[in-house]
Amino acid sequence: MSNSIFTMSSRMIEQERFARLNRDRRRLLPRAVLLGVLTGGVAVGIHLGLDAGEALRARLLVFAYGLGESGLAIPVAASALCVFLAAWLVERFAPEASGSGIPHLKAVLRDMRGFRWMRVLAVKFLSGLIGIGGGLALGREGPTVQMGGAVAEGLATGFSAGSEERRALIAAGGGAGLAAAFNAPLSGLMFVVEELRGRCASLEFFAAAIACLAADTVCRLALGELPAFRVAISASPAIELLPAFAALGLLCGVLGVFFNRVLLRVQALQPQTPWCRKASWLAWGALVGWLGWLAPELLGGGQRLVSGILDGETQLVLRMIPLYFLARFALTVGSYGTGAAGGIFAPILVLGALLGFGSGSLIQQWVPLQSIEPKVFAVAGMAAFFTGVVRAPLTGVVLMIEMTGNYLLILPLLVACFAALMAADRLHDLPIYEALLERELRKPRAKR
Questions:
Q1: Where are the alpha helices (DSSP H) in 224-312?
Q2: Residue 395, in any domain of the structure
Q3: Residue-wise pLDDT tens digits, 220-233
Q4: I need a surface site. Which of 41, 179, 279, 317 has the fewest CB within 10 A?
Q5: Contacts of 40 (CB under 8 A, 6+ apart)
């Protein structure tokens, strides 16, 4: 008798739990759709703005080249002004909007930081446009993640959402920002699970899935449905090449850890006095402008450079690839160190593409009889270097599949990413966003 009573009671509790979950989902559904639409709109805005900024920078360079050597002063002065303004906006109005903003978003989700969402949204958008448009080697993806979280915080405040629903919306907004940046809804969902929350609560997963789909739909309607990169592959890579992809993954894991340590070291070396910081912004901006005069393809988020490598339009001589890698490495670390709004998502994909393409080209020379396509190694390098830096291998794999629209690469991607994960874990190094989170939590709280 007691057993039957206990069974009935357990069923009633389970039924009540499902009923409550369904009520929460029905209430959350329109809010998650609205969140995705608004986040997609913000992502479209910064995408189009940065495209316009890049076109303006290219026209400015053409004009400067026409003036001869004296024209060098124009890109140097323009970049110095842009970097200064981008960094000043962040420091003056919303220090929590510096860099990618993902560590701050993680702190908000753990109830360790408040969220001045209106300030973050405005400053992030303007600083990102000005800084990246001025040539900083940063990406728009980190900013769209934090801006998606800011939109979610605004909706949660407007709807008077409870703490659980608020966290679900903020996590979903961050995932929607990533999905919109790359036209990759599954990657946005995986990023929420692997990185932002580290767990998969049913309500959060539901909200993130809806918001990512809605944001991606908005971006596809506004910007087109093609994948971010076009990669024409003749056939699936031979099974005999898997050890080569594993070796590439190990290399990416080690260099990913090195990238993290250098980035954190540069962050720690930033000047403490206001006038020194401002002088460093101007100096770095001038250096960016000078490099842009010499090699404009090195500036900005780097998507055109990667696209050129993958579709064959950019012909890189093997001996030049290490120079490009070192230049982009230094530009990314230095640009992030300014504190201007901008993420490292796209820059680490560029570094991975260069590393993978160089490795594939080298193997192609060593084994000329084997059918080897260096651009396949470039795609694997992107995912593996991302894994070495962020430690989110499934996000890296899904992201590359969605960005290239090619499922033939899934096995090499898995091998390279998990090899990178093992190498990075072996070096006992914190993932970059966890390390930056620790640094974020050492800062004084921003005043409301």
A1: 242-268, 274-294, 303-311
A2: yes
A3: 888 876 666 666 66
A4: 317
A5: 176, 180, 214, 215, 216, 217, 218, 219, 222
